[in-house]
Specification:
The protein is mostly beta strands. The protein has strands at residues 4-7, 10-13, 18-24, 33-39, 46-51, 58-60, 68-72, 78-83, 92-99, 113-114, 118-123. Helix content is 0%, strand content 47%.
Length: 124
Amino acid sequence: QVQLVESGGGLVQAGGSLRLSCAASERTFSNYAAGWFRQAPGKEREFVAAISRGGGLTYYADSVKGRFTISRDGAKIWVYLQMNSLKPEDTAVYYCAAGRGYNDLPLAGKYDYWGQGTQVTVSS
């Protein structure tokens, strides 16, 4: 029943920055952990970042650690992904996801709801 809508994708040059946003349609989203995943054409969907229900714990894929930051607002209605020092290999469709799990948040199977995705393209 939780509907998620991503925004903020676009075209950026290598080394640039983008901020992705994810908006939830229901206040029950505050009871869900949230994650960002991405998928490039011909590739499997891969984990990018996750944040716990309370926002106190965060997790990152090694490939983005130190460059990306996941956060959520105080009301836990919005989730953000700040992406800095972007590389062409970051090009993908990025998806916001929500789930009720406490553990193994980097696993896509832990999430019950998914947004439609937003395209991020990084040029050389």
